[in-house]
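ESCALATION

Customer reports they have been waiting on this structure for their group meeting. Please prioritize. Original submission:
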Amino acid sequence: MHVGHKVTPKDMVAVVIREIRPGETITFSDGAASAQVTAVTGIPAAHKIALQDIAQGQEVIKYGEPIGRASAAIPKGGHVHVHNLAGIRGRGDAQGGNS
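Update from on-call: job pushed to the front of the queue and completed.
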C-alpha cells in the first residue's frame, strides 16, 4: 500500500497520507513508479517527507516546480515543513518568487 504520493518524477518530496513514525519505511508513488524511503523523524499526515538529502539554501521541488528553499539542511526521510522550508511561491517580494 502506498502511504505517500509524489506529484511528478522531478519532485524532491512526497506527501504522506497518514502519520509516519520515525524509522518507518514508507512506499510512495508518482503514478508511474514506486519507491521507498525511511522516515528519520515523525511526520504528520498530509505533510511532506524528503525523498533525498536537501542542502540548506537549495530549492525544494514539488508539483515539478520550486515551492521554497530549505532554511536548514533536510536529510532524506526528514519532515519538510515551515520549520525548515522558506516558501517562495506567490511572494512578489522574494527574489525568484512568483507573483
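Sent to customer with the following note: The beta strands are 4-5, 13-16, 25-29, 34-38, 48-50, 59-62, 65-70, 79-80, 85-87.
Escalation resolved.
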